[in-house]
Design brief:
This protein has 23 helices and eleven strands. The protein is an alpha+beta fold. The protein has three domains: 185 residues, Orthogonal Bundle (Hypothetical protein af1432); 141 residues, Beta Polymerase, domain 2; 104 residues, Ubiquitin-like (UB roll). Helix 3 crosses helix 9 and helix 4 crosses helix 7. The longest helix has 34 residues. It starts with a helix and ends in a 5-residue tail after the last helix. The structure holds manganese (II) ion (MN). Manganese (II) ion binds next to loops. The site of manganese (II) ion has 4 residues, from loops.
């Protein structure tokens, strides 16, 4: 089966009613655009586009997101322009691809800028979180092929992923991608321990786990027959990076923390969750203090399930997580699942609002998130410098505001602005995501007092007034301007 056939198959399974012709068109379009381009691995570039789309199809995003995944590197890396994408695939997909292209300009440059960039990416996400999800899928494939890059680049990408991408994936609740991103990074971060844990949890325990699951299944199925509960039971996926982190924090041998078998039971309704819990507690003795009801009291991030640890068959400790299929999808696909279960026409900012409302209740980031919400929903825009830094400004801000935000001298000496590669007037109102470059003139003495008529930020206003005052022209001219 070709990579593209595999993608179609996944889409058919997860998105049965979607327009496959559109997907085929996107594939042909991207293949043609990337014709002749190769990845560092030597593979055709289109493999990367397909891998990105494949991840998106697997986490059940909507079809527009998958198509944007196929097209995501077209404007950045080929001669084909965004307008072409709009013409062929419509405005929604164009906007998603545009969002990705812009996010590509946010760069991680050291811990100092981390929080700032995090915030900015969050703002990007608030406009349409699907953009972020595509970015995670893109990053996932880049990490899978990281061994083809030079070491210093590997290091930067790993750091950037652990400090920016993975936490945001967590905030957005896209846990499956968060775990995958982290485990891939872990491999490069501490290869020795990665191999050790992988061997222990994925290879050695495999057989033992399968045996135990089968035994548990048999016992439960006998017990549930009379209650008529439909369910699925699986051994749980181990997230190696989090085991490693716990090992570091607690300085314990991982035997002590993690030699508990974890199983997940999916049922159809909330009442079945509690019925199943009753079944398990009847069969095996629960371990004290380990029962948690996150259905009646969800976790701050919205997570819902029943957790309990019991002394199972052969006196082995088993942790069960019981939840409905919908809770399960919410837990691993995060916001992606909301597109399926909530009203699909609901604006994305509303979901983001939900995410933020939840985050607001989280202990440590309370104030941060509050501020974030304020920034997102109250008149802020963000624009890019040519180097990829993000500057946030009030709505209606102009290149002069931008210039002063970057540096007072740049503000004082600016003469022109290049916005999205076009020369624009200094009083142009900037839009979200604009790429702004300021042209300065070394010999320029200072700002033009007329700028006070249009600047929006106090930093620009104060600097212009200060200059004018020093020049003694302030008092005569200021009366003309209502400020
Ligand atoms: Mn890419």
């Amino acid at each position: 089966m070709t990579r593209f056939d595999k993608l179609l198959k996944t889409i058919k399974k997860n998105n049965p009613n979607s327009d496959l012709d559109m997907v085929r068109l996107a594939y042909d379009f991207a293949k043609k655009a990337h014709q002749g381009q190769k990845r560092m691995s030597g593979e055709p570039y289109i493999y990367h586009s397909l891998a990105t789309a494949q991840t998106l199809a697997e986490i059940k995003t909507d079809i527009a997101t998958i198509i944007a995944g196929i097209l995501h590197d077209v404007p950045e890396d080929t001669d084909v322009k965004l307008e072409e994408i709009k013409k062929n695939f419509g405005g929604e997909i164009e906007k998603l691809v545009e969002g990705i292209t812009k996010l590509g300009k946010v760069k991680y440059r050291g811990i100092d800028r981390y929080v700032e960039n995090l915030k900015k990416m969050f703002i990007a996400a608030a406009q349409d979180p699907r953009v972020m999800v595509i970015k995670f899928a893109d990053r996932l494939h880049n990490l899978k092929t990281l061994n083809y890059l030079p070491e210093h680049k590997q290091k930067r990408i790993v750091e950037e992923t652990l400090k920016i991408y993975a936490p945001i994936a967590g905030l957005l609740g896209v846990w499956r991608l968060r775990w995958q991103l982290e485990d891939l990074c872990f491999k490069y971060l501490d290869n020795k321990n990665y191999k050790k844990l992988k061997e222990k949890y994925e290879i050695k325990q495999q057989k033992e786990r399968t045996r135990l699951i089968n035994k548990v299944k048999k016992i439960i199925s006998k017990e549930t027959k009379k209650d008529n509960i439909e369910y699925e039971i699986n051994g749980r996926f181990k997230h190696l990076y989090s085991i490693w982190q716990k090992m570091q924090n607690k300085q314990k041998k991982f035997n002590e923390i993690y030699d508990v078998f974890a199983m997940r039971i999916l049922v159809n309704s909330i009442s079945d969750c509690y019925k199943m819990l009753g079944v398990i507690h009847t069969l095996w003795k629960p371990k004290k203090g380990r029962f948690k009801d996150f259905i009646s009291t969800p976790k701050p991030n919205g997570y819902r399930a029943l957790h309990t640890t019991v002394f199972g068959p052969e006196k082995k400790l088993i942790e069960f997580q019981i939840r409905t299929k919908q809770m399960h999808e919410e837990a691993i696909f995060g916001i992606a699942s909301h597109w399926r279960y909530k009203n699909p026409t609901q604006p994305y900012s509303k979901w983001m609002d939900d995410v933020l409302r939840i985050q607001r209740n989280a202990k440590n980031s309370k104030d941060y998130m509050k501020k974030l919400k304020f920034d997102i929903f109250n008149d802020r825009i963000f624009v890019f410098t040519p180097k990829g830094d993000v500057v946030d400004l009030p709505i209606g801000a102009t290149p002069v505001d931008f210039a002063y935000q970057v540096h007072t001298e740049i503000g004082n000496k600016c003469v022109n602005a290049i916005v999205n590669e076009k020369i624009e007037r200094l009083d142009t109102k900037l839009k979200n995501g604009d790429l702004v470059e300021i042209i300065t003139e070394k010999n320029r003495k200072g700002p033009n007092i007329d700028w006070l008529k249009f600047v929006k930020t106090s930093i620009a206003k104060n600097n212009i007034k200060k200059y004018a005052k020093n020049q003694g022209i302030f008092s005569t001219l200021i009366s003309k301007i209502k400020h």
